[in-house]
Amino acid sequence: MFETILVPIDGSDSAKRAAVVGREFAQPYDARLHVLHVLEDQSRLPGRGGDQTPEEKGREILDEIVELTAGSNIEIDTHLVEGQPHETITEHANETNSDLIVMGRHGRSGLRERLLGTVTDRVLRQTSAPVLTIPGEVSERSTGTYENILITTDGSENAEQAAPYGEDIAQHFESTLHLLNVVDVQAEAGTFDAGGVSEDFIEELETEGQEAVERLAQQINDVNVPVQSAVVRGESQDAIRDYAAENDIDLIVMASEGESNLASQSLGSVTDRIVRTVDVPVLVVFQ
Asked: Which residues in 4-39 are b (16+ Cβ under 10 Å) and which e?
């Protein structure tokens, strides 16, 4: 599934973690790893021993990543390219036929965002390749080990397109797959009377959610991967985040877009919020 993996880096800790995760993914897939640093401007930069040109600083960053990923048998190519970061990353992914992009994302740091965080947002909206986003601060278990993988589904065809990725990763890392459907009553009943909805309506949503996870479980059981499934009530973002924390989830796999049964809320908006707020890697799969 993953033959060529692209890791854009900017020298930040988040990007360094992304490079480590890129290596961890490349090993079981025997994939080629492309590490890319984009030169955004040509001003001189303060550096060790005096000023550095952007090329010198970029090469230093790439060399550091190569050293960081040393000790593995994977093939690593480094690239130093001038251009606008998000455009260059997307173009480079196309040129190298990358079937996975691994990027660091900024943490929640008040009003200030890291450059790569902004770039990651833009790449997520432009590329068609799956993007694995890595938080700036993650626990040790969420880097390099994937014992528990969470796939979220709202029952839509778009959302279920993410399942084969979670399934394949679980096979390579010998993981347990968790299948989760969230019954977000407030979102589903948004067009109804503010007085609330009936218990029958909620039970109908839960039945549909159970059917959705059972469909996925049936597909996955064919490849002999351990599966746990759950249907929970709550606000989508909070329920997914809570489930991930309570079940020691190491990786969340989500589609970029889905659809709720009755409401206008899409899984795409939920995916966006999950990517920004959880402390584990999130793989975003596009339709």
From this structure: bbbbbbbbbebbbbbbbbbbbbbeebebbbbbbbbb
pLDDT tens per residue across span 227-238 = 999 999 989 999
Percent above pLDDT 70 for the chain:
80
- Other CB atoms within 10 Å distance of the CB of residue 275: 22
Domains with residue ranges and CATH for the chain? 4-137 (3.40.50.620), 145-280 (3.40.50.620)
What pLDDT, in 10s, does the model give residues 85-115?
999 999 999 999 999 999 987 633 433 344 4
Cα gap 17→181, rounded to integer Å: 29
Look up residue 208 and give its two tokens: 């549909």
At residue 261, φ and ψ (nearest 5 deg) are: -60, -45
CB 241 within 8 A of CB 150: no
